[in-house]
C-alpha cells in the first residue's frame, strides 16, 4: 500500500504553482480548471481546488462546498460548448479506485450518445486541440 500523505510535488500541485503549463479554462480564488491531456472524450477537463488534499477522503468539507458550484458551472459550460447529450462527472479516490494523480480533482467529460468513452489515461491529445477546446469552454463561460 502506498503512503497516504499529500505529496506537494504531485503534478497538479506543480500546475497550481505555475511550474508546469496547462490549458487553463477557469480560475478563481479557490479552484483551477484545465484540459485533461489524455481526454476520454472531446472537451474532457479537470477541476482542482487550490487547497491541498489527496482526494475526497481527506478534503475539508468547506473546500468541497466551494468546489462543487465550480464543477456545476463548468459541467453546464462543457455541455453547451461541445454540444453534448450529457456530462459525466467523476472523481477517483486512491489507486484501487483508479486515482493516478494524488491532488483532489473532478473530471468533467462531455458525452455524446454516438461517441464511446475512450480509456482512462489513454493517449495524449494534440496540444493544439487542447488549446482550441479550452478556448471553446472559455467562450461560453
Ligand atoms: P485520476 O485517475 O482521476 O487521478 O486522473 C488523473 C487525470 O489527470 C488523467 O485523466 C490524466 O489524463 C490527467 N493528467 C495527467 N497529467 C496531466 C497534466 N499534466 N495535465 C492535465 N491532465 C493531466
Structure description:
The protein is α+β, with helices and mostly antiparallel strands. It has a single domain, classed as HIT-like (HIT family, subunit A, 2-Layer Sandwich). Helix content is 29%, strand content 18%. It has three helices and five strands; from the N terminus they run H-E-E-E-H-E-E-H. A five-stranded antiparallel beta sheet has the order 1-2-3-5-4. A hairpin with a 3-residue loop joins strand 1 and strand 2. Helix 2 packs across helix 3. The longest helix is centred in the middle third of the chain and has 21 residues. The chain starts with 10 loop residues before the first helix and ends with a helix. The mean pLDDT is 96. Bound molecules: adenosine monophosphate (AMP). Adenosine monophosphate binds next to loops.
In CATH, the homologous superfamily goes by the name HIT-like
Largest sheet: 5 strands, antiparallel
Q: Which residues sit in consecutive blocks of at least 5 with pLDDT less than 50?
A: none
Euclidean distance between termini CA atoms: 41 Å
Number of domains: 1
* The CATH topology: HIT family, subunit A
The outline comes out as globular
Amino acid at each position: 500500500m502506498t503512503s497516504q500523505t499529500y505529496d506537494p510535488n504531485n503534478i497538479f500541485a506543480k500546475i497550481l504553482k505555475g511550474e508546469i503549463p496547462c490549458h487553463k479554462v477557469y480560475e478563481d480564488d479557490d479552484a483551477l480548471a484545465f484540459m485533461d491531456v489524455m481526454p476520454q472524450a472531446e472537451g474532457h477537463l479537470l477541476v482542482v481546488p487550490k487547497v491541498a488534499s489527496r482526494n475526497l477522503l481527506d478534503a475539508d468539507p468547506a473546500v468541497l462546498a466551494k468546489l462543487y458550484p465550480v464543477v456545476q458551472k463548468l459541467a453546464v459550460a462543457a455541455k453547451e460548448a461541445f454540444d453534448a447529450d450529457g456530462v459525466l462527472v467523476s472523481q477517483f479516490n486512491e489507486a484501487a479506485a483508479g486515482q493516478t494523480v494524488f491532488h483532489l480533482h473532478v473530471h468533467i467529460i462531455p458525452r455524446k450518445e454516438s461517441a464511446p468513452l475512450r480509456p482512462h489515461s489513454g493517449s495524449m491529445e494534440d496540444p493544439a486541440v487542447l488549446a482550441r477546446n479550452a478556448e471553446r469552454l472559455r467562450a461560453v463561460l
